[in-house]
Amino acid sequence: MFVKICGLSTTQDVEAAVRAGADAIGFVLTASPRRVSPEQARRLVAAVPEGVLTVAVFRDEPLDQVRRDAREAGVGAVQLHGEHPASAFAELRDLGLTLVRATSAASAAGASCGDFGEDLLLLDSPVPGSGESWDWSALGEAPPAGRWMLAGGLAPANVAEAVALARPWGVDVSSGVEVRRGVKSPELIAEFLREVRAAGRG
Ligand SMILES: O=C(O)c1ccccc1N[C@@H]1O[C@H](COP(=O)(O)O)[C@@H](O)[C@H]1O
């Protein structure tokens, strides 16, 4: 199971996520209590070992800004929230980065990874980064095809159940590993990874 820990803003957070075994680490470069500048993201990216995917998260920014900020941050992937047509993913392809399409699970019936030319699909709650969960079992009958991540209100206490119900390729968490909005907890990050790994063995 692929695990992304999102919304990190300090080197200590990054070290905690790497130590716990995260596969990907996300930096929010859009309006959010977790926002970091591209320059801050670059410094955090430098603390991430090779083999761990670094992801810049955007919502509704113009594509030329996405391009510029992703390059400045030096990330390996961009995650786009908002209404983006397939042409947006085609346009960003020459960046040479992994492209993640984030969409609300509420409107994702029948979705497959790659529908818009993306490399990874992320199904999130209607309000990304809010910690709100949604009915993961709704996907049980027809989960997306391909590489897709489940997000929205995940936490150490519920991730095993969510994985069992939705059977995703990966999971993504932000609020559920925080002690308060925007402040990550190394203990909760480690606990989240332990729960996911244990669920994968079950
Ligand atoms: O974290 C944010 O503030 C954020 C802002 C804008 C777009 C996406 C954002 N975060 C994404 O939300 C999910 C996780 O949310 P949750 O807090 O665990 O419910 C994840 O994909 C983040 O990348």
From TrEMBL:
InterPro entries in the cross-refs: Aldolase_TIM (IPR013785), PRAI_dom (IPR001240), RibuloseP-bd_barrel (IPR011060), TrpF_fam (IPR044643)
GO MF annotation list: phosphoribosylanthranilate isomerase activity
Enzyme class: isomerase
Catalysed conversion reaction: N-(5-phospho-beta-D-ribosyl)anthranilate = 1-(2-carboxyphenylamino)-1-deoxy-D-ribulose 5-phosphate
Pathway: Amino-acid biosynthesis; L-tryptophan biosynthesis; L-tryptophan from chorismate: step 3/5
Signal peptide: none
Annotated GO biological process: L-tryptophan biosynthetic process
Enzyme Commission no: 5.3.1.24
Top-level taxon in the UniProt lineage: Bacteria
Keywords: Amino-acid biosynthesis, Aromatic amino acid biosynthesis, Isomerase, Tryptophan biosynthesis
Positions of the N-(5'phosphoribosyl) anthranilate isomerase (PRAI) domain: 3-193
Keyword match Aminoacyl-tRNA synthetase: no
PANTHER family, per the entry: N-(5'-PHOSPHORIBOSYL)ANTHRANILATE ISOMERASE
Family designation: Belongs to the TrpF family.
Protein name (Swiss-Prot/TrEMBL): N-(5'-phosphoribosyl)anthranilate isomerase
UniProt gene name: trpF
